[in-house]
Each structure stands twice: as structure tokens, then as C-alpha cells.
Write a structure and sequence with these properties.
Elements (H helix, E strand, L loop, with lengths): L1 E2 L8 H6 L24 E4 L2 E4 L3 H6 L5 E2 L9 H7 L6 H10 L12 H13 L20 E7 L9 E4 L10 H5 L2 E10 L5 E4 L1 H14 L7 H14 L11 E10 L12 E10 L10 E6 L17 H4 L2 H9 L4 E5 L7 E4 L3 E6 L2 E4 L10 H12 L3 E4 L4 H5 L3 E6 L3 E10 L2 E4 L7 H14 L10 E3 L1
Parallel strand pairs: 11-12, 11-18, 15-16
Antiparallel strand pairs: 1-4, 2-3, 5-6, 5-10, 7-8, 7-9, 8-20, 9-10, 12-13, 14-15, 14-17, 17-18, 18-19
Helix pairs in contact: 7-8
Length: about 475
């Protein structure tokens, strides 16, 4: 609760002492408090109710001077209030200190100028980051906290810790710098229209990191440790989660050989870390269909290699072909298998699906293709919708004769393919728009991720 006058501000700590509770209405707008003389121990603000254990507190509040920060694109009051009961948390103490200096001039008016002024006051006070949510791309952004946990030579993991986002200190002979001993994971947190924060299948990321760590001869955090670290990092950076429908908070988890090593061998020590960034669409053209080029010379992975795990080296090797394709005006590159050179595998950073009538086909994960979590989710969702899904080798000829083609991944979610160019010949799909199947699957998947529809699959985790 913020006052228009500093001397009457009611901080989060004071809210806690008075044991104020509330629930946010579905609209989530900023509402001024009702006249105190009209109530005793309760105050109604729109559909929001404040309960005061001490009714005298309500009568001491000045009329029309206190406001709820309830708009989802400014701050989620429901989440703030839920966390306000934990005043020992250092992040929320910092937020409380910022709140005491905030002046919020607004009203129930829907005047855009008033709302913009209120938003700027939140940004100026440091309560909300200065970000253009309407034009949020996919890039790095310095947020508040990152998570760091280390593993010693004996294989024991230390207790993880949240630190200010910043640079790391590594030995020049660190295993990750000299021999590329490192893997990473990516997942997202969404803010729902009713103020919840949802993670999407974080246990799958933990499981995949374990598999990748084994392949790269590294110890991995347990599933519980991984998920808990993700939760703590997201909550510590909660103010960076975009408003509903404006994007998501991308969560990047890394596991690297940080200990010094000169000879070719596993590093003696390891570091697990997580950082986050608010993101929008992955491709620069937003939700528009992407145009792919089939690469015939370079290969992303080969049998027996590390193509099936999220090794950091897998991604540096695709940059040359990707940059060349982008200079020609393509969105990305689609790679072929390294043996027969006629079966499609995956795009630089996402899996691919082919639709022909009511059959959906995708390359099988046979060790050269990353088992994407979004890919797995689409396969499972499609089957619940009655589609036949085949995981098998998919030839270039099948691809070029498909009705629809789309890509999946944490970053892209589902990205429609508008055209594919192979050996100089361009094949277009769905007249440059969304296909029937891909549209249906996108609505189902994104609806679950953003809390718009019931999660019948049990995939989301509320924090």
C-alpha cells in the first residue's frame, strides 16, 4: 500500500505488523481505498478486501491517499502481499525500502496519461525495471540476482547462494575454457493474469541436465536441488517477469568445469549457476512465419557425438552456417544427418515437426538430436488431441511435400515455418500463415504455460 504523500506511507513491514491480508481481483487495476468512515475492520477496493486485525488502523488511514499496486503490468499485489509475510527475506526488505520513497499519483480513471505517469513513478523508484514490455525481444538483460552453487573435488555440492548479478572469476585453465566442459538448460517462468507465477516442467530440465552431465563427465545437482534453485532465482527476480501476455522470464541454468586443469581430463571442481532475463519473441520478425535454409555442407552433430545433450560446444559449431544464411535473408538453418545427408535433424536451436493430413512426424532422438522438452510436450499434447504422431527418420522429400511445418523449443515455443529453401528451390507452406494443426497445438501449449487454460497434463509448477 503506497501513499501519495511520503509521510503517510504504509510500508510492507508495517503491513506485516498489522497482519493485513488481501486478494486481487481478476482485472488487477489500481484502485484507491474506500473512505475509511464507511467501514470498520474491513476495506473494500473494487473486488479487493483488506482485513485489519485492529479496526483502529483503518480509521487512522487518510481518505483517498493510499493506493493498491494491483495492475499486473506494474506489480502483482497478490504476490507482493503473499511475500510480505516473510520480512526476513533480504530482497523484500530492499523492496520495502524502495516503497517508502515512492509517490504514486493515480486514481480509478482509465486515463492513459495517469497510468503512464504511475508506471514511470514505479520505474523511477526502482520498483519496476525500465523496460518497453510492448517491444521486448530476446536478449540479455542485467537483472537483480543469480544463483551459484559449487561442487568440490570430493563430489560434494555446497549450499547454493543468491548473489548480485555480475561477472564470474575463473582460472584461465578452467576446464570449461580449455576443453569446453559445460552444459546448459533453458526454461521459462510466466506471470498469469491472476497473479500466479508458473514454471513449465522444470523437473524435465533437471533430468536432462543429469543426462548431459554424465555424458560430459560432470557431477550434476539433484532434481530437488535444481528445481529449488530455479524457484529461488525466479522469486529473487520477480519484478523482471513480464506482465501477462507480454513475454516471459527466461531462466538459464549452466553447469561448467570451473576448476583448473592443464592436461586433458575432467575438471577438479564444478560450478552450477542460474541467471534470468525477461524475453519476448526469439526471432526478430516476432510471431511471423520463419524462412529456413537446408544446410548441405556443414553438420550440427554426428553419431556418437554430443548432439543429444545440451553441450555448449554444440551451439558454437552452427554459428558459421547460421550467419551465412541470415546474410542471405533466412531466419535460420535446418541441418541434415551427417551419414546419409537426406534426413532432416533439427534447426540450430529447436526441433522440427512435419504435418501431412492428420499425421505429425518429427525426427527421432537417436543421439544426434536434442530431446527437447517442448518437443516432448508437443508429442504428448498432439496425441491427446487425437493426432497420430510418428518419431522416425524424416526425409527431405517428405518435408518439401508437407502441409505444415513448425519448430519447437523453449525459446521459440512453436514457430511456424513459412518456407524452406533447398538447393536454391523455395517451398512455401500455409500461404505464409498459421496452419490448422500448429495453431491448435500452440494455443493448447501456450495456454497451459501461461495459465490461461486448465493444465490437464500436470506440467506447470506454481511458485
Amino acid at each position: 500500500i503506497i501513499s501519495a504523500k511520503r509521510e503517510h506511507s504504509l510500508t510492507l513491514d508495517e503491513c506485516t505488523k498489522r497482519q493485513i491480508t488481501s486478494r486481487i481481483d481478476s482485472d488487477g487495476r489500481i484502485f484507491p481505498m474506500a473512505r475509511p468512515s464507511h467501514c470498520n475492520s474491513r476495506m473494500h477496493i473494487g473486488d479487493t478486501r483488506l482485513n485489519f486485525n485492529n479496526s483502529n488502523v483503518a480509521h487512522r488511514l487518510p481518505h483517498d491517499e493510499f493506493f493498491l499496486l494491483g495492475r499486473k503490468d506494474l506489480w502483482s499485489f497478490d504476490n507482493v502481499h503473499r511475500r510480505a509475510f516473510y520480512p526476513k527475506d533480504s530482497y523484500w526488505r530492499d523492496f520495502e525500502q524502495r516503497c517508502t520513497q515512492l509517490q504514486c499519483f493515480t486514481s480509478t480513471s482509465t486515463n492513459p496519461q495517469r497510468e503512464a505517469a504511475a508506471f514511470r513513478s514505479l520505474q523511477d523508484a526502482g520498483v519496476m525495471p525500465v523496460i518497453d514490455w510492448e517491444n521486448l525481444g530476446f536478449g540479455i538483460c542485467k537483472t537483480d540476482k543469480m544463483y551459484v552453487m559449487k561442487c568440490d573435488r570430493g563430489g560434494e555440492w555446497s549450499a547454493g547462494d543468491l548473489k548480485p548479478f555480475g561477472n564470474l572469476e575463473l582460472s584461465p585453465s578452467a576446464g570449461v575454457l580449455n576443453y569446453g566442459q559445460g552444459i546448459f538448460e533453458g526454461l521459462k517462468a510466466h506471470r498469469t493474469s491472476d497473479g500466479r507465477i508458473l514454471l513449465f516442467r522444470p523437473e524435465e530440465n533437471a533430468r536432462r541436465m543429469m543426462v548431459g552431465a554424465d555424458r560430459m563427465c560432470m557431477p550434476a545437482p539433484s532434481m530437488d536441488a535444481f528445481v529449488q534453485a530455479v524457484k529461488e532465482t525466479v522469486l529473487a527476480n520477480e519484478r523482471w517477469i513480464p506482465p501477462p501476455g507480454k513475454g516471459s522470464l527466461y531462466v538459464r541454468a549452466l553447469l561448467v568445469g570451473s576448476g583448473p586443469i592443464l592436461g586433458l581430463a575432467p575438471a577438479p571442481d564444478y560450478t552450477f549457476m542460474i541467471y534470468v532475463a525477461p524475453v519476448g519473441c526469439y526471432f526478430k520478425d516476432g510471431a511471423s512465419p520463419i524462412n529456413l535454409k537446408i544446410e548441405t555442407k556443414c553438420h550440427r552433430a554426428a553419431p556418437g557425438g554430443t548432439g543429444g545433450v545440451k553441450s555448449i560446444g554444440n551451439y558454437a559449431s552452427v554459428l558459421k552456417a547460421q550467419l551465412a544464411a541470415k546474410r542471405e535473408g533466412f531466419s535460420d538453418v535446418l541441418y541434415l544427418d551427417a551419414v546419409h545427408k537426406k534426413y532432416i535433424e533439427e534447426v540450430s536451436s529447436c526441433n522440427i515437426f512435419v504435418v501431412k493430413e492428420d499425421v505429425i512426424s518429427t525426427p527421432e532422438t537417436n543421439g544426434t538430436i536434442l530431446p527437447g522438452i517442448t518437443r516432448k510436450s508437443i508429442v504428448e499434447l498432439a496425441r491427446t488431441h487425437g493426432y497420430k504422431v510418428e518419431e522416425r527418420p524424416v526425409s527431405v522429400d517428405e518435408l518439401l511435400n508437407a502441409d505444415e511445418v513448425f519448430c519447437t523449443g523453449t525459446a521459440v515455443v512453436i514457430s511456424i515455418v513459412g518456407s524452406i529453401t533447398y538447393e536454391g528451390k523455395r517451398t512455401s507452406y500455409t500461404d505464409g500463415g498459421l496452419g490448422k494443426v500448429s495453431q491448435k497445438l500452440y494455443e493448447s501449449l501456450s495456454g497451459i504455460q501461461m495459465g490461461k487454460i486448465y493444465d490437464m497434463m500436470g506440467w506447470t509448477m506454481q511458485i
